[in-house]
Structure formats: structure tokens, C-alpha cells
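Example record used in the benchmark description.
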Amino acid sequence: MDLNKIVCSCYSVTNGMIKEAVDNGASTLEEVQDATSAGTACGACLDDVKRLVEQFVAERDS
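Model output (C-alpha cells):
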């Protein structure tokens, strides 16, 4: 996975920024949104952000 790839264009949030939020304790979409603002403007990336959060939480917790 390219951690430098932008997921949220509105706030220039990358895969890596979402992973960092999860690594720092975020476990839900809402907690990642609080940490990164991803998906809080136009919402076009919400499905991708949610999928990434679920993936990174599963990796962290395994």
C-alpha cells in the first residue's frame, strides 16, 4: 500500500495519516475523522476512509 496516496482530497489526508491515527489509538471512523478531518467536507472518500480504518484496526489488533 502506498502510504503517501491521498485518500481525502479536501484535506490532503493520506493512507499513512489514517494509519498513524489508528496507531495512535483511533479505532472508529469518527475518531479518525477527529484526528485527520478525513471525510468531513464533501464525503466522497467516506467509504475508502472507513475501509482503511477497519483494515488498519484489524492489523493493529492482530
